[in-house]
Amino acid sequence: MTTRTATPVGTGTRAGSRWLGPVLLADLVAQVGIVVTGGLVRLTGSGLGCPTWPRCTGASITPTVEQAEGFHKYIEFGNRTLTGVLAVLAVASVVVVWRFAPRRAMKVASAVVLGGVVAQALLGGLTVLLGLHPATVAAHFLLSMVLVVAAAYLWFARGEATVPARPLVPDLVVRLAWVTSGVGAVVLALGTVVTGSGPHSGDADTPNRFGFDPRTISWLHADVVMLFLGLVVATWLAARLTAEATSAPRAWLVVLGVSLAQGLVGYVQYLTALPEALVLAHMFGAAMLVVALTAGVLALRSRTT
């Protein structure tokens, strides 16, 4: 008679939950990555490399040799292809979160990521059909920032999958962190207006811009950045003076470091007439600032009992 070894209760769940971290990290990396590739599309003037949507041309889903768009078609199509990768990772995130992270906030965040990827695909198509209007381009970028926030939240809060968190600082410090993050969002929004008023339209032949003076908008953006930096310093000091654990002020020190680096890149690119490499670095820095802010807010609470 054959005997069957019993599998300990919960073993399958523990083994499956090991996928939670890797899947969520892959999703976060991909969300940041597509911001960079989207910037590459814009800076090379490849936004209309595939002049229609959802096909690349009127008759083909993929680029064709006969297209007049040259190398731009491959850059734009490559960025579109990455959306498919994001969709797969978003579905995988929903599966692992709903299976192994019963907390409601994490389930909602995973659904936001999945729904946002779909919305991004539709918004990207609308952007192409409207000839890269700066308003839709800005919305495309800002929605990406929302998805980076959601993906970063899932990654940094994965330790809260089954364990409730408790605050490590007074409520006033938490409110200050949220105000700082809100001003950071204003900085990002103004940054899209600066970009939409500058030379990098996303189309090499027919630039489509806002009607604002680039110099005026740039200085308005810089003024709000100064306010943001002051709030970051204040949040860091408040966390250092009141937090029960050193992880909170360390996280906000990272926010300060990323903010200063981002500000330096911003000033240098302004003074050097917006070279493409620095603009791309600035876009990557914006995504990393969002990740750092998310980590900073979450660091103000404990993930252990």
TrEMBL record:
Membrane topology per record: Multi-pass membrane protein
Protein's pathway: Porphyrin-containing compound metabolism
Localization (cell): Membrane
Pfam families from the UniProt entry: COX15-CtaA
InterPro entries registered for this protein in UniProt: COX15/CtaA_fam, COX15/CtaA_HemeA_synthase
Regions crossing the membrane: 81-101, 108-131, 137-156, 176-197, 217-239, 251-271, 277-300
Keywords: Cell membrane, Disulfide bond, Heme biosynthesis, Iron, Membrane, Metal-binding, Oxidoreductase, Transmembrane, Transmembrane helix
Organism superkingdom: Bacteria
Keyword Manganese appears in the UniProt entry: no
Keyword Transmembrane assigned: yes
Record protein name field: COX15/CtaA family protein
Taxon lineage: Bacteria, Bacillati, Actinomycetota, Actinomycetes, Micrococcales
